[in-house]
DNA sequence: CTCGATGCAAATCGTTTGCACGTGC
DNA sequence: GCACGTGCAAACGATTTGCATCGAG
């Protein structure tokens, strides 16, 4: 069901995260540790600027952009696009089956995580009919939240 | 079903389009006529830069941005976001029930229009459970087209 | 010690805007 | 003629990149 805050996706431990970096022969630096630790405690996707503001002097903005790109590339972080021209990033939760979507208020930008998705056969049928392989999708909902109505 | 090119959405006549502008007391200028006429003949969404390239000296890039914004505002054009940081625009087809999505090749960006959508109850249920009103969604598919496999 | 990572600043890219001029109606 | 629309250039915000330095392994 749609849930407001503190979604129940189990966020990975920092030790587990740094271990993943180590496995790929990537360095565990202060900035990277700080970024991962911050994302671990976020219920919703964050923009790079928000991460920058939260980390203060802890990390350069360019480093955040570079880190996010790297983390997305290795599948530890997922990138979302809410149509306002700013990328948002969310830590992928433990199991890996953290496929979910968002419902964003058009007025105040309040976000609710949506765990449900449409039946998989819908997408399978599209893949079959088109001949495309490895089909994925992006799906976000927009509306007006109770407060803003 | 998913179809390759020349989707069957009936594109509006230029005369019908300019009539809509007139109704809103907006001026029918050369640039606007050229933009609408170009969009009428496009099977897929176009970026502003593509429109600019297609129109050559016919219209300034800033005018294209301003026109698209205006056309989206009055519901004659729909804006799409394929996650690459560039907005794309498509003329809304005649009836108005032209709600559709796209399947984009991750390799060559080839686009296929998808007319189907998931059952409306799915979205209704999300709206009901969250208390959000006027809920809409963005949904795009990504995969690897037959040619690029 | 070595190579990847960082900070800083400059560059790029999509998009927006200020302003003087041009033109539908 | 007036208000809206346009062209041109400057401004902007998000993201990327070049380069010298720094630090994890």
Major sheet details of chain A: 3 strands, antiparallel
- What's the CATH class of the largest domain in chain A, please? Mainly Alpha
Quaternary structure type: homodimer
Largest interface: A-B, 39 and 38 residues
* Fourth-tier CATH superfamily name of the largest domain in chain A: Winged helix-like DNA-binding domain superfamily/Winged helix DNA-binding domain
Average of per-residue pLDDT values of chain A: 91
CATH architecture of the largest domain in chain A: Orthogonal Bundle
Strand line-up of the largest beta sheet of chain A:
1-3-2
CATH topology assignment of the largest domain in chain A: Arc Repressor Mutant, subunit A
Discrete helix count of chain A: 5
Q: Which stretches of chain A of 5+ consecutive residues score pLDDT under 50?
A: 1-6
Portion in helices of chain A: 25-40%
């Amino acid at each position: 069901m749609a849930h407001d805050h503190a979604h129940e996706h189990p966020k990975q431990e920092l030790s587990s995260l740094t271990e993943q970096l180590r496995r790929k022969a990537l360095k565990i630096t202060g900035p990277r540790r700080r970024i991962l630790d911050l994302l671990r405690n976020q219920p919703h996707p964050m923009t790079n600027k928000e991460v920058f503001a939260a980390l203060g002097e802890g990390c350069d903005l360019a480093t955040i952009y570079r880190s996010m790109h790297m983390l997305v590339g290795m599948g530890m972080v997922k990138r979302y696009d809410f149509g306002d021209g700013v990328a948002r990033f969310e830590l992928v939760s433990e199991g890996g089956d953290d496929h979910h979507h968002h419902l964003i208020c058009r007025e105040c930008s309040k976000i609710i995580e949506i765990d449900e998705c449409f039946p998989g056969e819908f997408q399978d049928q599209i893949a079959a009919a088109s001949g495309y392989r490895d089909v994925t999708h992006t799906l976000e909902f927009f509306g007006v939240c109770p407060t803003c109505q």
